[in-house]
Each structure stands twice: as C-alpha cells, then as structure tokens.
Amino acid sequence: TFYAKKLEVVLVGLENSGKTTLLNVLAAGRPVETCPTIGLNVKLVRKGGVQMKCWDIGGQAQYRSEWGRYTRGCDVIIFVVDSHAIESIPLARKELHRLLEDRELATTPVLVVSNKIDLEPHVTEGDLIRDLNLDYVTENPWIVIPISALKVVNVDQVLQWLIKQGN
Ligand code: GDP
C-alpha cells in the first residue's frame, strides 16, 4: 500500500467545485459508494490505508450540526475550491472558516485544492490565499495546491501530500 497507516480524509467544498471528480481520480476510477443518510450526500471511498469521506457544504446549513459526525477523528481536510467560479470564493471563505471553528479540527492539516485551473480565468494561488483569508488560519497547518481534477493536472502533488500526512 501507498500508506503506512490508516488515513482519514475529509473532502469538503461548495457544490460543483469538483470533489466527486477528484475523489474518483484519487480512487483510480473505482466506483464511489453513496451514503444518503440524513440528507447529507456523503460519499465514501476506501483505498489501501485511506478512507475518504466527501460532502458538499453550503446550502446545507440545516445539517451543520451533523458535520462533527463526519469530521471527528479525521486526519486531514481537503477543501476544494472552484478557481474558475471567482464569484463563489467569498462563500467558500465563509464556509471554510466556519468549518475550522470546530475545536475538534483545531490542528488538523488543511489542503486547499484550487481546482479547474484548466479554465480561464481562474484565481491565482496568491489571490486565493488572500481571498480565503488563509493568513488568519494560524493553528491548522495549510497548503494550497492548484490542480485540474478533470485533466489530471497536479493530482500527483495531492497524492504526495496525502502520503506525507500518512507517514
Ligand atoms: P462536486 O459537486 O464538488 O462533487 O463537483 P463534481 O466533481 O461533480 O464536478 C462538477 C462539474 O465540474 C462537473 O461537470 C465536472 O466535470 C467539472 N469539473 C470538475 N473538475 C474539473 C476541472 O478540473 N476542470 C474543469 N474544466 N471541470 C471540472
């Protein structure tokens, strides 16, 4: 296996940011199980020593109280942003900071995936750091990786980062 230990990954982001596409690429084309509990559309993938849970945030305020159930015990958070949907970034910022308010996640590493860089225009890495207020995220270690899940650009960097977290 790629991973030395079991790694619990939570993949979150606004609807349409590309989470399912990334999940499928990370899971190497395996079918995704869908778990239609409590109105939250949670997708689960297990591969080697990795378990990945994926769900949409935003527009699902009523299920916010359930987030803890999916984030509890997670080792890393992958927060997926649509870098081409520039108008959606303020909402993504709000949801990211709201998610990180959970004390359970206070020191959980966050990988911000800036997806859809194959589309123009898209926010640059520097602009995204500014627009997501990442400089205010001081307790969680964080990193931004610009990718295209669809064109499979820089997905290897995501895997490398995950492998590093798992060791
Ligand atoms: P989710 O709602 O976050 O799970 O998003 P999906 O994975 O369902 O993707 C939403 C739409 O964006 C789909 O039409 C995908 O094909 C498209 N998409 C996902 N990733 C990329 C990408 O890197 N580039 C482009 N151009 N489209 C993408």
From TrEMBL:
Pfam families: Arf (PF00025). This is ADP-ribosylation factor-like protein 8. PROSITE patterns: ARF. The keyword Magnesium applies. Belongs to the small GTPase superfamily. Arf family. It comes from the Eukaryota. Keywords: GTP-binding, Magnesium, Metal-binding, Nucleotide-binding. Mg(2+) binds at T20, T37. It comes from Pelagomonas calceolata. GO terms for molecular function: GTP binding; GTPase activity; metal ion binding. InterPro entries: P-loop_NTPase, Small_GTP-bd, Small_GTPase_ARF/SAR. GTP binds at G13, L14, E15, N16, S17, G18, K19, T20, G59, N115, K116, I117, D118. The keyword Endoplasmic reticulum does not apply.
